[in-house]
Amino acid sequence: MLLALAPGTKEDTESCRAFFEDLRRRGLGDPLLVMTDGAPGLIRAVEECFPRSYHQRCLAHRIRNLQSKVPEHLWPEVRARAKASYEASSPAPAGALRDHFIATYERDLPSAVLCFEDDFEAATAHLRFPVAHRKVIRTMNLLERLFVKERRRTKIIANTFGERPVLNLMCAAIIRATETWREIGASAFERRQLEAIREELDEAHRRRQASAVSAQSAKKSPSSFSSKNRP
User: Other C-beta atoms within 10 Å of 194: how many?
Assistant: First the structure.
């Protein structure tokens, strides 16, 4: 389902925050999962605007980033180990496979290991969700393929240049594409899983808020060892 489409020239925090805040004003709550690429401004805006959501880093982008840091002859082996970790059965074995990956390559491929470690929790957020849903929610491939096709069109069709024509073209293309997307089904058991995830996210958010309030209160409270209280 297409919720919103807006023109933009960059993925800075301010622009992304404004886009998300508009969605929230129109009634969008915190989704269970929000997926992004590695754009720092976009990620920061997601964290600020959707504090009760898991954040998933697109694995297709992450694998391409990792490949750029690995010699070609080693890539098949490294890719297999990375995918085994990213697509493990649950977060716990993913962490064990991550540690083994790091131990195997940290000496010979330090830049690849840094890339692999970066935001690992977000790269494996999909493992918290029902198994049948994971293939769909771990990459942005549906949108990426659509964007590639539209970029090709704007290069060869002269009258699409300009903000309004391009926006109209993209809106029509996305609406057509969404008609072919199949909804992810959910059994009674999977719905209970999703409800448990919602409760988990809400509880984590409450704990963060309580911790922040306690920290602010501690800063405002006068110290019992201040100079004013000394004899």
Answer: 15
Within the chain, where are the H helices?
13-25, 40-49, 59-67, 75-86, 91-105, 110-117, 120-123, 134-137, 141-156, 163-178, 188-220
Count the neighbouring beta carbons within 10 Å of the beta carbon of residue 204. 13
> H or E stretch including 57?
strand 54-57
Handedness of CA 160, 161, 165, 168 (dihedral sign): positive
Q: Using the structure block, give the residue that is written with the tokens 């240049």.
A: 161
What pLDDT was estimated at residue 183? 72
Q: Say what the pLDDT of residue 9 is.
A: 75
Q: Domain boundaries in the chain?
A: 25-139
pLDDT in tens, 128-142: 999 999 998 999 877
DSSP character for 33? E
Which amino acid, 74? L
Q: Whole-model pTM?
A: 0.81
